[in-house]
Amino acid sequence: MDARQKAAKQIAESPQDFKICEGCESIVMINVQMCPNCHAYRFNQSEADIIKHAEILGSREQQSVTSEDLS
Question: What pTM value is reported for the model?
Fold first, then answer.
């Protein structure tokens, strides 16, 4: 299992600890006030949506640019 699949499994097992950025659709920790990737501040906290989104992201290669990519 690769890192993305492991992260998706962890998120799906604890969706209450995460939320989805409505700007870039990244999954971030629940305590984040602003998305570290796109600096948006609107989030989807639906646990069902988080689980579904984690499964989608875990099944494909990364497509978004992250802050690490810009360093």
Answer: 0.80
